[in-house]
């Protein structure tokens, strides 16, 4: 019986199949429905639009793949815009529907718990809105990001910041998982990619009221930085921009950069909102517009009108494109996965008291396979190629848009390989850089990214109140108005520097009285934020620069010492000897004697004045020789040979004596000024006091150098001079150490009595002081350089310190050397040669004339000595004879007083002499 019934049914079934024909095939391969959950916030436009987009994707997918054996059945749940509601929606889907996958449009915060659930139940969650890098597929195997992580856009932002050279950026972000997640990436990218600092982070509560937004914006307004990166959900972001516009922060000088959370929504904004966002630069992933997208847009709007008749349909944003692609990818993976419809495996109900509702959820057996299938999915989606890398979508390029009018126009692109470019072409990289940007406040130039802090307030600049050296800084109080007037070299330099800056800086000087105690105190005021800067003679020191920022130095640098100079030879009774060295004295003496001898030797025979007894002859000879020194000799010279030798000798004497006079003159006037202290070791004695300037860091330096010294402080150049002239013994000092600029000022006033000696200790000169990290410093330093390199600095220095050439440097005149023998060597050579020649000629003549007698006289003598004596005698005798005969001949030669040299010419006299001598023969 049973068999019969079975046969009948099978026959009937077969018949039915045959009868039904084609239709029966469809029926037989009825696709299996696969449950897929959708969690989104149905209360928001984004939720509604995404739901439409997902439904369209599933419909489109099966329209294109009608022979697929699976059909995705969507189960939509409302997340209600909260973490708890989203989690309970997920639990409900997993528990009751046993969905095989979840597509969600959750925020990063909401997604967090859902992702935990997914991990537990091994149900892949595909999320196209949770962009926070804090939630990463790398750590959650069942979390897949069908959108681009927020961290992908930070290199593009860094490239933008670098392109415009901004050095400081303040992130303004939402206090949420989404807002804070990107921050570490942003800070790192700015530091590494753009050398930009993040001096401050502005946190805005997710549900901040307008008052709270205003409070935060006011805080930003008082700060230096003017470049803001706004990272928050679009609703909050747009509200922030509206408030900023109200407060005047959409004005020239400000830079607003919006991350793609806001940028994606710009196209949906009303005119009021875009009006408030003029000049905002937005970053967004680059999605190439295509026919596919415009076709989708049209269908999307039709479908949206049907789904949500009450709402105004708009063009889909990137999120809708990603939602579409995500749903497509899930549908595709579902088809590829085997056993897709098997039920969840639940743990044995053991009555275990620990087991909770969550424990009983079970595990999806096909979860892992489905996850892998989604990950491996590759297709050309609406938003470009759909391809997950490590579980998340990657973006090949980012686009910068600039809100101008009611739209956001593209101003450039960024790719990891080519950086910024004006256009994006697939083959070659477009021209580098960006298109012209509309800046907030319609500013003409690129904002420099920072402003002197404080809203319209002036820079408070401390200036030292000095009690001396007021060429540097001088604070005067006008007795009538009681207003303080600050002038000086440092002030002039600073004002010239500020004038050089490409922007205006307004400031006021505030005299700081305690600076005379220590300049460290003054510099610390900037660190303590009591002042915004110090302008004055503040020396750049390593120790000070730990707390503050110094500009480049604007003066020369170094510490040296001044000491009095005194004439050390004033009381020397032998000073007349000093002009010539001993060598020269002795050498000159020798030449006097030699010349005297030559004159005597030649004149002795023919000149009665050189005759007589031996003492007489010696006396005459020496008297003659030394009287040439003052050209007061009275003896007549009879021989032309002597006359010639003596004329040359006169010439030498003239030069020697005038050199001596000049040298002695200089010695008696400037030459003997010498510093009283020649080097530092002379100061290293207990009785010696050393001076320094009030408040100067030199005090510390001296304490290190001289351990036992008594140090004394002075303020004015007048006190310097007084103390130095007194000396340590009388309560003054022996030396004063100070920086070279002050010493120069001092010396220009007290040029004659003091000098700078000793080694120069290097310091870095004077610089202006700003707080650490101040943006003004690089610009001021550049301006200082351009002023020092130009003529301006010279003019300022001349105006305050006078002409440096007014005081000749004395050190060159100190210790002018005595004249040496070498300096007159040439002269002595000439006179020596001439005298020797004259002597030789004379001897030759003598030997020639007396040859016979000489022979006779020498022949009679046997020894050499005796022969010499005989020759000398002959010389002496002949002499006497010739003189005797001369006296007889003209009688007048004998008296020196009766004859004048001008009587007869040398030539005549010479021939006469010759004739007479020959006649006497
Ligand atoms: C569906 O049909 C296409 C051709 O129209 C074929 O290439 C594909 O393999 C079919 N898929 C299945 C699951 O039968
Ligand atoms: C995911 O689940 C596995 C075990 O199923 C666990 O080892 C892992 O820690 C979980 N991961 C997260 C991020 O919770
Ligand atoms: C802004 O838009 C106006 C009109 O569309 C255009 O003339 C102007 O050049 C744009 N400004 C910039 C900086 O692109
Ligand atoms: C002075 O003497 C002390 C020791 O007495 C020594 O340490 C110091 O270096 C000396 N200073 C100078 C400048 O010579
Ligand atoms: C030296 O310093 C002391 C205290 O630092 C100060 O009272 C005094 O006026 C200074 N002397 C001069 C001459 O300035």
UniProtKB/TrEMBL annotation:
Chain intervals for the UniProt region annotation (Disordered): 885-921
InterPro entries: ANF_lig-bd_rcpt (IPR001828), GABAb_receptor_plant_PBP1 (IPR044440), Glu/Gly-bd (IPR019594), Ionotropic_Glu_rcpt (IPR015683), Iontro_rcpt_C (IPR001320), Iontropic_Glu_rcpt_pln (IPR017103)
Transmembrane segment boundaries: 573-602, 644-662, 824-848
Cellular compartment(s): Membrane
Keyword field: Glycoprotein, Ion channel, Ion transport, Ligand-gated ion channel, Membrane, Receptor, Signal, Transmembrane, Transmembrane helix, Transport
CDD domains: GluR_Plant, PBP1_GABAb_receptor_plant
Major place of residence: membrane
Domain (Ionotropic glutamate receptor C-terminal): residue spans on this chain: 458-803
Signal peptide as annotated in the record: 1-28
One GO location term (cellular component): membrane
Membrane topology summary: Multi-pass membrane protein
Single GO term (MF): ligand-gated monoatomic ion channel activity
The family this protein is said to belong to: Belongs to the glutamate-gated ion channel (TC 1.A.10.1) family.
UniProt function note: Glutamate-gated receptor that probably acts as non-selective cation channel.
Subunit structure: May form heteromers.
Protein name as it appears in the record: Glutamate receptor
Annotated organism of origin: Zingiber officinale
């Amino acid at each position: 019986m049973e068999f019969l019934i079975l046969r009948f049914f099978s026959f009937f079934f077969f018949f039915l199949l045959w009868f039904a024909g084609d239709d029966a095939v469809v029926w037989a391969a009825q696709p299996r429905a696969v449950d897929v959950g959708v969690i989104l916030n149905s209360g928001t436009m984004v939720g509604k639009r995404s739901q439409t987009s997902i439904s369209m994707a599933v419909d489109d997918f099966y329209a294109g793949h009608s022979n697929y054996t699976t059909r995705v059945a969507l189960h939509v749940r409302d997340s209600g815009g909260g973490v708890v509601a989203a989690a309970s929606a997920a639990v409900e889907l997993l528990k009751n529907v046993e969905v095989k996958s979840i597509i969600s449009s959750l925020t990063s915060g909401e997604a967090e718990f859902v992702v935990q659930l997914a991990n537990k139940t091994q149900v892949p969650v595909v999320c196209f809105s949770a962009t926070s890098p804090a939630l990463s597929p790398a750590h959650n195997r069942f979390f897949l990001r069908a959108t681009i992580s927020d961290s992908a856009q930070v290199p593009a932002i860094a490239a933008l910041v670098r392109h415009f050279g901004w050095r400081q950026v303040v992130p303004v972000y939402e206090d949420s998982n989404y807002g804070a997640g990107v921050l570490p990436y942003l800070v790192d990218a700015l530091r590494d990619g753009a050398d930009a600092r993040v001096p401050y982070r502005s946190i805005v509560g997710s549900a901040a009221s307008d008052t709270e937004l205003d409070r935060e914006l006011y805080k930003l307004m008082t700060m230096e930085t003017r470049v803001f990166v706004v990272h928050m959900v679009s609703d909050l972001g747009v509200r922030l921009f509206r408030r900023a516009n109200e407060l005047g922060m959409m004005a020239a000088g400000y830079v607003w950069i919006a991350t793609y959370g806001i940028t994606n929504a710009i196209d949906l904004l009303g005119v009021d909102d875009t009006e408030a966002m003029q000049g905002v630069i937005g970053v967004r992933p680059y999605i190439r517009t295509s026919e596919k997208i415009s076709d989708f847009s049209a269908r999307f709007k039709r479908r949206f009108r049907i789904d949500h008749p009450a709402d105004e349909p708009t063009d889909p944003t990137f999120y809708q494109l990603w939602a579409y692609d995500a749903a497509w990818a899930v549908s595709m993976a579902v088809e590829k996965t085997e056993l897709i419809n098997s039920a969840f495996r639940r743990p044995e109900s053991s009555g275990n008291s620990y087991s909770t509702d969550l424990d009983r959820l079970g595990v999806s057996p096909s979860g892992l396979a489905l996850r892998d299938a989604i990950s491996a999915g590759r297709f050309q989606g609406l938003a470009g190629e759909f391809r997950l890398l490590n579980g998340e979508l990657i973006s090949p390029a980012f686009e910068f848009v600039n809100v101008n009018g009611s739209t956001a126009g593209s101003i450039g692109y960024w790719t990891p390989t080519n950086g910024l470019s004006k256009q994006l072409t697939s083959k070659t990289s477009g021209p580098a850089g960006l298109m012209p940007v509309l800046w907030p406040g319609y500013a003409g130039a690129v904002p420099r990214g920072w402003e002197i802090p404080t809203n319209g307030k002036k820079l408070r600049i401390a200036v030292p109140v000095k009690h001396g050296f007021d060429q540097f800084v001088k604070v005067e109080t006008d007795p009538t108005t009681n207003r303080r007037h600050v002038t000086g070299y440092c002030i002039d330099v600073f004002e010239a520097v500020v004038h050089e800056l490409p922007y205006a800086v307004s400031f006021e000087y505030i005299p700081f009285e305690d600076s005379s105690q220590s300049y460290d105190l003054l510099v610390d005021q900037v660190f303590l934020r009591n002042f915004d800067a110090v302008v004055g003679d503040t020396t750049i020191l390593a120790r000070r620069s730990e707390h503050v920022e110094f500009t480049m130095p604007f003066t020369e640098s170094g510490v040296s010492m001044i000491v009095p100079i005194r004439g050390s030879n004033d009381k020397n009774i032998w000073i007349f000897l000093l002009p010539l060295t001993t060598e020269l004295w002795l050498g000159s003496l020798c030449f006097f004697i030699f010349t005297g001898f030559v004159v005597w030797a030649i004149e002795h025979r023919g000149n009665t004045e050189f005759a007589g007894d031996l003492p007489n002859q010696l006396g005459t000879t020496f008297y003659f020789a030394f009287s040439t020194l003052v050209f007061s000799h009275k003896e007549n010279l009879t021989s032309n040979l002597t006359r010639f030798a003596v004329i040359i000798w006169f010439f030498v004497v003239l030069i020697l004596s005038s050199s001596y006079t000049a040298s002695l003159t200089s010695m008696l006037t400037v030459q003997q000024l010498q510093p009283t202290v020649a080097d530092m070791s002379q100061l290293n004695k207990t009785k010696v006091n050393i001076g320094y300037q009030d408040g100067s860091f030199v005090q510390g330096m001296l304490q290190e150098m001289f351990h036992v010294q008594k140090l004394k402080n002075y303020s004015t150049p007048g006190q310097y001079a007084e103390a130095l002239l007194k000396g340590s013994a009388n309560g003054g000092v022996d030396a004063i150490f100070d920086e070279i600029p002050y010493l120069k000022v001092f010396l220009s006033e007290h040029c004659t009595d003091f000098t700078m000696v000793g080694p120069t200790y290097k310091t870095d000169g004077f610089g202006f002081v700003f707080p650490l990290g101040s943006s003004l410093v690089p610009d001021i330093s550049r301006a200082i350089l351009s002023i020092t390199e130009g003529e301006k600095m010279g003019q300022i220095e001349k105006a305050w310190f006078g002409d440096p050439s007014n005081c000749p440097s004395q050190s060159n005149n100190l210790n002018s050397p005595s004249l040496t023998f070498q300096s007159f060597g040439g002269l002595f050579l000439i006179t020596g040669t001439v005298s020797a020649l004259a002597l030789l000629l004379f001897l030759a003549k003598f030997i020639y004339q007396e040859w016979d007698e000489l022979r006779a006289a020498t022949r009679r003598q046997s020894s050499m000595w005796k022969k010499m004596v005989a020759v000398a005698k002959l010389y002496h005798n002949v002499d006497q004879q010739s003189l005797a005969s001369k006296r007889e001949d003209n009688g007048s030669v004998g008296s020196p007083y009766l004859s004048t040299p001008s009587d007869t010419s040398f030539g005549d006299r010479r021939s006469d002499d010759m004739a007479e001598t020959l006649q006497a023969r």
